[in-house]
Specification:
42% strand, 203 residues, mainly beta, 4-stranded antiparallel beta sheet
């Protein structure tokens, strides 16, 4: 449902329907399954995940009852940022800022108050400070399409049905079109990734 990376490059993901939490360290190739960190009698949609600079992981859940669950992977401690009486139908909001802290709301609405989350604790604030800057890193929900290559080139188009890849170089204005092919048992591939061993996988 959502993915992010912390300040040390570890990738974190939260999964549907039982709020499972996983981490993967690209440098050491260590994969950790922390299991379901929050149980409900309804399916959960952990649409956003963020990590503060102390290492606490924050996950927003919904839609039946909103909340933000935070987790300390070092000691496997779990906390809830909102009491049961504060929860409402819908989904909360959540983002990581450049100052190392995480900010969010119990419901993602303009008229809802904001909270600052840090080191597993929450603090209510009147409004988001004007100088708050969202931290830029690779993150997103299950629809994430990361288009940038390390050398500055980026994907302009990837059509898995027509089997065409177009790569552009913003600095040189060059465009390269690549035709590719694959075999399947009927349906066309809808998703493609590079696996840890360097091979390309698709579903």
């Amino acid at each position: 449902m959502s993915m992010t990376e912390d300040d040390y490059g570890t990738i974190w993901s939260a999964t549907y329907p039982h709020c499972g939490l996983f981490s993967y360290n690209p440098k050491t190739r260590e994969f950790v399954d922390y299991g379901s960190i929050h149980q409900e009698n309804w399916v959960q949609y952990p649409r956003s995940i963020a990590v503060d600079d102390t290492g606490w992981v924050y996950i927003r859940i919904g839609y039946t009852r909103s909340n933000i669950v935070c987790f300390n992977p070092k000691i496997r401690e779990k906390k809830y940022m909102f009491e049961e009486s504060e929860r409402r139908q819908g989904v909360s909001s959540l983002f990581r800022a450049e100052n190392g802290k995480v900010y969010g709301q119990i419901l993602a609405r303009e008229d809802e108050p904001w909270y600052e989350f840090y080191n597993g604790e929450r603090k209510k604030i009147e409004a988001l400070p004007a100088d708050i800057q969202r931290k830029t890193y690779i993150s997103g929900n299950q629809g994430l399409f990361y288009k940038n290559f390390p050398d500055g080139k980026r994907i302009k188009k990837l059509d898995l049905e027509e089997k065409i890849l177009i790569v552009e170089g913003p600095k040189t204005n060059e465009t390269k079109q690549i035709k590719f092919d694959y075999e399947s048992e009927g349906a066309y591939i809808m998703e493609i990734i590079t696996s840890p061993d360097g091979s390309i996988c698709g579903i």
